[in-house]
Amino acid sequence: MAEAREADVRPRKRPLADAIVTLAETPDHVAGIDARFKQIARLAADRVGAADYASVTTLRGREYTIVAASSEVAIAVDEAQISDRVGPSLQALDTGEPVGVPDVAATMDWPGFHALAPTLGLQASVSVPLHMGRGAPGAVLNLYGRDDVAMQPLIFGVAQLYAVRHELTIGTTPAAPADPGAEELLGGYAEALAVRATIQLAITLLAAGRGSSPGDAYAHLCLRAAAAGTLLGEAATTVVEQHL
């Protein structure tokens, strides 16, 4: 019994959540960002039971790029969207808002995606923006599933977290509890949104206090974090505490 109690209090491993949160605290200019995107895609494919395939897409200049993919299926679906320059992953990247597709076959908004995904056995998807230090989405994590029922809790959970953070109302009833991997993803996404909000508040406070632009305030925050040997989230928390 004692051993069981000790096991219960040990911190649970959550590499996917930690990777998403760490990315939100990382300055955009840091080298090796693509490696972090690939890590998130790999962890999502391995740990989220509801999703059969995962990928990460980003925008380089004017070109959408597939940074990582767990299979040829994910690549094919992403390439169809990039070819049309429309699709749930591209919409999420452009708007910074998650895009859930609970029924791929019933979705007519994106012709290439609608035509190809069902032929590959995909029934549902969700695209989740991956935020970086500056605040804008640096990439999008796409999760594709063959079981739309299994994907529904994840799709709803992502939409609910975004809505709560932005004080929006969504008219969707909660689905059954998601699998542990999906819960880990949702936890990481929630924390990343909170970190992003703290960093944005710190930038606003620094810009006002220094009489500078948001860009200059962000650069100053990056310098503060580097000097302290911390990530942006911790540096931003310090700024907020000093001002408020």
UniProtKB/TrEMBL annotation:
Family annotation (SUPFAM superfamilies)? GAF domain-like
InterPro entries reported in the protein's UniProt record: GAF, GAF-like_dom_sf
Q: Which residues form the GAF domain?
A: 35-147
Name-wise, this protein is GAF domain-containing protein
